[in-house]
Amino acid sequence: MLQSGGLMPEVTVRELVTLVTGFHPKPEPVETTLKRAGIAQFADQRVDRLSGGQTQRVRFALAICGKSELIVLDEPTAAMDVETRRLFWDSMREEVAEGRTLLFATHYLEEADQAADRILVINRGRLLADGTPAEIKARAGARRLSFRLDKVDEQFLLGLPALVNLEVRHDFVQIQSSDSDATLYAVLDAGYRPSEIEVTSLGLEQAFLAITAEDDRSDGDTGETI
Amino acid sequence: MTGTLALTRVELKRLERNRRYFIFTVALPVVFYLLVAKQVKTTAYGIPFGAYYMVSMAMFGAFSGALNGNAQRISQEKKEGWIRQLRLTTLPANAYVISKVLVSMATTIPSIVIVLLLGRFYGHVHLPLWQWFAIAATVWFAATIFAALAVAVGYRYQPDQVQPISLVLYFFFAILGGLWFPLTGFLGKIGELTPTYDAVKIGSDVISDASVPVGLAIGLIVWLGIFVVLATASVRATAETV
């Protein structure tokens, strides 16, 4: 399934799905496809009179109209509205439940977090991380610890256990940590009494940013080119 | 092949819904024939004007349908990504082009038949049965040549460029081919090189001599070769962007 891409105009949705289904060596029944893609209610409308979200559902229908073992989707939800997107992932889960493999590229990391079993992070053509969403988040430093501290000793903070990244602005300290408990205890054990302590878990999006930023930085240091 | 034929069937269905296509291929030559055929009392290419004009109008409708309709559509569908979408299916790569040519061959038939019937019953052209078939087959074949030209233009150029390009080609082959009126003198000499002229001349020679001129038939085949080479080059040149 393509992110964008024209469909044959002047035919109805049903005609188009029937046509493409016919090309498939192991076709699904057309009615099943129409229902799964959520396009049954406008199956008799002409393809060139659909909205963007409806068109994307038709493209999706063309991707699932055969019993493929592997479904490849390029930014499948880019043009979808909220409801369509939910419907789309529901039907994708059905596909996966039947034993099919789903490979998709996306910029919506929340989606990847919810839908994917395995995530590959690619930055400028290079593979940076490969794992389950939980592993990716752990790798980036799964939690962010922040607090205020009157007299900041940066050397001490950099030596904290499980620290992945440190940011200090005046008295405000932000730490990305792979084990926030250990990091926090080390601060307290050293006799510091920080205020406004906050521990938040990183979303996949922040994990992604952390991993790619790290990569961009190391590129800058070594002058490596890709 | 079944996939290609399925695509062709759906393409035909689309064309049925597109009335504009039939204005070019059927209505225009019919109206021209009704207006002009009986006004001119002379002969052309050695046969009565009504007979010549029947052959030339059949050619006119068929070639303009094959050229104008297809070039624009192919270019549009390429731009919008339908061709790319088709490439994701199990269809062979050439299925799209083959189906376009097949559709073109199917849709020129009614236009040819209608103009010939008009010639017979309105223009009072009386011919033996084999001559009717020879004329229809020649015009049909010549129109198919232009389906190849449409592929060459449609694949290579953007839709907004295709419009003027196919218009120029349309006037070039219609006028120089002597479809609207027989050309004489220098322009006539140049016009004799065109496939539209070849086809009309074969038709009129069939009527006047009751024989098929081999030289002109070879001319048509050479033109087919040229347009197929151009079409292949266009498809190949844009293959990476598909």
Number of helices of chain A: 9
Q: How helix-rich are the residues of chain B, as a percent range?
A: over 70%
Task: Supply the helix-strand structural class of chain A.
Answer: alpha+beta
Strand order of the largest sheet of chain A: 6-7-5-8
- Biggest β-sheet description of chain A: 4 strands, antiparallel
Radius of gyration of chain A: 24 Å
Shape of chain A: elongated
What would you call the shape of chain B? globular
Low-confidence stretches of chain B: none
- The tally of beta strands of chain A, per DSSP, is 8
Tell me, rounded to a whole number, the average pLDDT of chain A. Answer: 83
Going across the major beta sheet of chain B, what is the strand order?
Answer: 1-2
Structure, described:
The complex is a heterodimer of chains A (226) and B (242). Chain A has helices at 13-23, 30-36, 52-63, 82-97, 109-115, 133-139, 154-158, 180-189, 204-222; strands at residues 70-74, 101-105, 119-123, 126-131, 143-148, 163-169, 172-177, 195-201. Chain A has 226 residues and is an alpha+beta fold. In chain A, strand 1 (70-74), helix 4 (82-97) and strand 2 (101-105) form a beta-alpha-beta unit. In chain A, helix 6 (133-139) packs across helix 9 (204-222). The two termini of chain A are 29 Å apart. The model of chain A is unreliable at 221-226 (pLDDT under 50). The mean pLDDT of chain B is 90. Chain B has helices at residues 2-16, 19-36, 49-80, 82-87, 95-121, 129-156, 159-176, 185-191, 195-209, 214-237; strands at 43-44, 47-48. Chain B is an all-alpha fold. Chains A and B meet through helix 1 of A and helix 1, helix 3 and helix 4 of B.
List the helices and strands and how they pair.
The complex is a heterodimer of chains A (226) and B (242).
Chain A: H1 13-23, H2 30-36, H3 52-63, E1 70-74, H4 82-97, E2 101-105, H5 109-115, E3 119-123, E4 126-131, H6 133-139, E5 143-148, H7 154-158, E6 163-169, E7 172-177, H8 180-189, E8 195-201, H9 204-222
Parallel strand pairs in A: 1-2
Antiparallel strand pairs in A: 3-4, 5-7, 5-8, 6-7
Helix pairs in contact in A: 6-9
Chain B: H1 2-16, H2 19-36, E1 43-44, E2 47-48, H3 49-80, H4 82-87, H5 95-121, H6 129-156, H7 159-176, H8 185-191, H9 195-209, H10 214-237
Antiparallel strand pairs in B: 1-2
Helix pairs in contact in B: 1-5, 2-3, 2-5, 3-5, 3-6, 3-7, 3-9, 5-6, 6-9, 6-10, 9-10
